[in-house]
Design brief:
Distance between the termini: 41 Å
Oligomer: single chain
Number of helices: 5
Radius of gyration: 22 Å
Structural class: alpha/beta
Order of helices and strands: HHHEEEEEEEEEEEEEEEHH
Number of strands: 15
Number of domains: 3
Helix content: 25-40%
CATH superfamily of the largest domain: Hexapeptide repeat proteins
């Protein structure tokens, strides 16, 4: 704990002192690194957005990233405004499989494709997005999906390969009426994520601890939200 605090003090001190150095490309780069390191100690999701920008990803406003992997061609990726990208999401902008034809076609390089995410989208944990894919505005991608095709606005998609399961408007209606969706006027997202573990544990268990887990769907029945 002491070393963590000391390291933070050193980062802030260096960031302050370096402002008075002559402006050069090297000094600007060091200042940028120190800024991102300092930000990561306050809000890691915002720091990840800045790292993505430094890699060459085109990023809109009010985004939050939780450790996605932008691959080898981040300059082919464009993210809109108000987009949340969960952990272990992979953006794949090339298809190396074409290299199996290299003996037949010796001058082959690779197959590349852009990826574009529209405004106000959510990409779930562990999603894989393949080359030449575009998601429209207000799209939700379920955790673990493999997105191999483009999808229009207001789509909730899921699966491998990902397919539309319903409209975002229906997801909103189901989620907001669910007993598992929690609300708090004082501490909402994203501030809630930075509260102490014990606080979050008590807050969640007090509100959903008594709700039974959803039972398997009966044959021919409809699966809904709690």
């Amino acid at each position: 704990m002491i070393s963590y605090f000391f390291k933070g003090m050193m980062i802030r001190l260096l960031y302050f002192v370096i402002k008075y150095f002559p402006r050069t490309k090297f000094i600007n780069k060091i200042q940028r690194i120190l800024y991102v390191k300092q930000l990561s100690r306050v809000d890691g999701s915002l720091a990840d957005v800045e790292i993505a920008k430094d890699l060459g990803v085109k990023v809109g406003r009010d985004c939050r990233f939780y450790g996605p992997d932008f691959g080898f061609e981040p300059f082919l990726i464009e993210i809109g405004d108000n987009v949340i990208i969960s952990g272990r999401v992979q953006f794949i902008t090339h298809d190396g499989a074409v290299q199996i034809f290299r003996k037949e076609i010796p001058n082959i390089v690779n197959r590349y494709g852009k990826i574009k995410i529209g405004n106000n989208c959510f990409i779930g944990f562990g999603t894989i997005i393949l080359p030449n894919v575009q998601l429209g505005t207000n799209c939700i991608v379920a955790a673990g999906s493999v997105v191999a095709d483009s999808f229009p606005d207001d789509s909730v998609i899921m699966g491998n390969p990902a397919k539309v399961i319903f409209k975002t408007s229906l997801y909103k209606k189901l989620s907001l009426s669910s007993r598992l969706t929690l609300f708090d006027s004082v501490c909402s997202f994203p501030e809630f994520n930075y509260q102490p573990y014990e606080f979050r544990k008590k807050f969640i268990l007090d509100r959903i601890g008594h709700i039974p887990i959803r039972k398997p769907k009966k044959k021919g029945g409809q699966q809904g939200f709690c």
